[in-house]
Structure formats: C-alpha cells, structure tokens
Design goal:
Elements (H helix, E strand, L loop, with lengths): L2 H15 L9 H11 L4 H13 L7 H9 L10 H15 L4 E7 L4 E2 L10 E2 L6 E6 L2 E2 H7 L5 H5 L16 E4 L4 E6 H4 L10 E3 L2 H7 L9 E3 L4 E2 L7 E3 L15
Parallel strand pairs: 1-11, 7-8
Antiparallel strand pairs: 1-4, 2-3, 5-10, 6-9, 6-11
Helix pairs in contact: 2-3, 2-4, 3-5
Length: about 260
C-alpha cells in the first residue's frame, strides 16, 4: 500500500473513532487528535484551537468547526482550514526569537485617581489584586487584550474593550501607567530621535493620541492608549493601572 493510501486510511480511521473518545477525551484533545491526523504539528494544532476559542467558538463545537473547515479532506477539498493554519504558522514564525515579557495589571480597587484631575499622579493602595499577563515583545497592549491567549488575557479583556480595533479612533483601551514606569518630561515623538533615552519608561502621548485621551474616563497625567504602547524588553515587569470605567463614543455613532 502506498504512503498516501496509508495516510488516508489513518485519517479515515481516526475520523470514525472520534465519537468513541468523547467520554474519555476533552473537546480540545479530540480536535487536536483530528488536526494531528491531518498532518499538522502540535504547535500549529494548538494555534488553530486557540484562535477558534479566542473568536468565540465554544469547546463543545471545536471538533465540528474544524471538520467543517477541513472540508472534504479525504479528496483534498479544503474549506478554509489551510488558510487558518497558514496564518497560525506565520504567527509562530514571527514569534521565533522574540522574548517573553510579563506585564502587571492593577484593577481600580488597588489605586485611586489623582485629586488634581489630569495633572496629578494616581495613588497606589495595594497590589494584592494585581494580575500578570505573559506577552511577546513588540506587541502592543491593546492587541494583548484582543488576541492574547496566555493566562489572564481573558481577564484583561474584561477591562479593555478596544472598540475601534486599534486605529486610535476611540479611548476604550485607555490605561494609566504606574508612576514608576512613566516619564512626563517629554512626549513619545520627542524621544524617538534622542540619544540615551530610558527605554524602561513610557512617555507622554503624541498630540493625536492626547485628543482621544481627552475623551477617556477620568484621564490622568500618565494616561495612554493601549494601542499606542509597544512592549519592548526594557518594559518587562511594567505595572499598568486599569481604570474603573471607559467612555465608548463608538456606541453613539449612527451606523444605519
């Protein structure tokens, strides 16, 4: 029997056995087994599953969704799975060689607004409820909330809405930088070409970003939009304060 026929028979056998494993394997494990049977690596399989879960597919529907995307895989007729796998592979390639960073997020119960409105420094009361998120370097904060799959990314999504999808047309990814990680002596634009810049600091926003921050929920002097903060190695361990609420002007736009 040829190797291609062996591969086909193996896929067909696993496909027939999927229902028999439902009592002993989780939906993720069943889906992973099916993807492996199609020849995808463990890393790509995990990436496909993570992408689907992140986009709202419940675990119980994972296997059916993946099989639907696989199409008539027995005869080589794909229905979208190959494109998704290619996207996952590209993302994995982009992550190679990048450092993993940890960023701490403190909900509003651990800090309070400055009494001097937008010109003062917020007060930190307690870090007890802070949670950390592992991110890849050169990712921006808004994308961590929108697309992150590591531990606590789902918690972060509850605080950062990112209504405009990162085009700086709203203030829903508004965050406040911990005073220890903020430098108010210059704007981001001013320090780009300056020698000897402290890369372990976040600076004042640009004028267009400030225009959006003026519409944010009680902005502080160290307020920034998450979509405009790129996480570099020097920012490993940074502390970000999460506001109590957000102002979403996108809700007031008449799209009809």
């Amino acid at each position: 029997m040829s190797s291609s026929n062996c591969s086909f028979m193996r896929r067909l056998s696993i496909s027939k056995d999927d229902g028999d494993d439902s009592a002993t394997h989780t939906p993720e494990q069943q889906t992973n087994a099916f993807l492996l049977s199609l020849g995808y690596s463990h890393a790509v399989s995990k990436g496909i599953i993570d992408a689907l879960v992140q986009n709202g597919i419940p675990p119980s529907s994972l296997l059916g969704m993946v099989k639907g995307l696989a199409g008539r895989y027995e005869v080589g007729e794909d229905a979208g799975l190959e494109a998704l796998a290619a996207s996952v592979k590209k993302e994995l390639e982009n992550e190679q060689g990048k450092a993993k960073l940890k960023v701490w997020f403190l909900p509003s119960t651990g800090w309070s607004l400055s009494t001097e409105d937008s010109t003062g420094v917020p007060t930190i009361h307690s870090m007890d409820r802070a949670f950390s998120v592992e991110v890849m370097e050169n990712t921006n904060l808004a994308d961590v909330a929108r697309f992150g799959t590591t531990e606590n990314c789902d918690v972060l999504r509850e605080y950062l809405e990112c209504a405009c999808n990162g085009i700086m047309a709203c203030s829903t990814c508004h965050v406040v930088i911990h005073p220890d990680w903020f430098d108010s002596t210059a704007t981001t634009d001013e320090v780009v070409s300056r020698n000897g810049v402290d890369e372990a600091k976040i600076y004042l926003p640009s004028e267009p970003e400030q225009d959006m921050l003026d519409l944010a929920y009680y902005p502080q002097i160290s307020s920034r939009l998450g979509c405009q903060i790129t996480l570099t190695k020097a920012l490993d361990g940074m502390i970000v304060l999460l506001p109590e609420g957000s102002n979403n002007l996108m809700d007031s736009i008449p799209f009809e």
